[in-house]
Amino acid sequence: MKHLLSLFALVASLFFANHVVAQTIAVTNAWARATVQGQKATGAFMTVTSKENSKLVAASTPVAGIVEIHEMKMDKDVMKMSALPNGLDLPAGKAVDLKPGGFHIMLMDLKLPLNKDVAVPLTLTFQDSSGKKSQQVVQVPVSVQPPSGQGMNHQHGDHKH
Description:
single chain; Immunoglobulin-like; eleven-stranded mixed beta sheet; 11 strands; 161 residues
C-alpha cells in the first residue's frame, strides 16, 4: 500500500495538473477530501466548464473500487445523497461546481487511505451532444479542506455504501 501511494505521489509530482483543458472541457480547482485509517469513502470536487452542451457520464480511479457521480439535495427537510446514473449535465459555457453539499464524485471502497498533500489520478469520462465520449485524467490533490478554505459538510443521508 505504501508503495502504491508513493507511486501516486511520484506521478503527481511529475504530472501535477490542477487545471486541465481538453478539446472543449476545462476542469479546475480539483481536490479530494483526505481520509483517516479505515475510512472507505470520500468525495472529489472540482469546477467543470464545457464549451458545448455535454455530460460528465463516469469517473474512475485506481484508488477506489467504486466511483459514482452524486448529488446532495434537500428532500422534506432532510439532506439526501443519490447517484446520478445518467450523468451530470454540463451546459455550454456554464461553470458547474462539484462541491461539498452539492454535486460531487464519490470515491467508495477505497483501497488505501487518501493522505493530505498527495494527488490521485481521476479519469473523467464526458459525452458530447452527438454521443461521442472522451476522457481526461486529472491529478486531484488530497486535502483536509477545499483550497478556498471553506468547510465541508458532507453527509450521506439515507445513501447506503
